[in-house]
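Researcher: Structure prediction, please.
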Amino acid sequence: MIAAFSVAPGGAGESVSEYVADAVRIVRESGLPNETNAMFTNVEGDWDEVLGVIKACVMKVAEEAPRVDVVIKIDYRPAAVNPIRSKVQAVEERLARG
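Model: Predicted structure follows.
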């Protein structure tokens, strides 16, 4: 499965990069395939691994913030092989064909 998620302290001011960096560090240290963009971090693995990583990110942000906003979107497709890369690759191939 792939989960696209974001975590941020509730009611945060202009910049949340410090909190986001703490969460992304946890994702990267998990060893699971992942990528981060301007809005979300995508992480790939089984249910327990992915949800465990997301929970760890939420708990890390909660250490400094009394409230944490979380957004999660899950693509559950058990037969998919390397979906975090293959989904993007399929789009890029179509774009290359014109």
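Model: The CA atoms of residues 91 and 97 lie 10 Å apart.
Researcher: Thanks, that helps.
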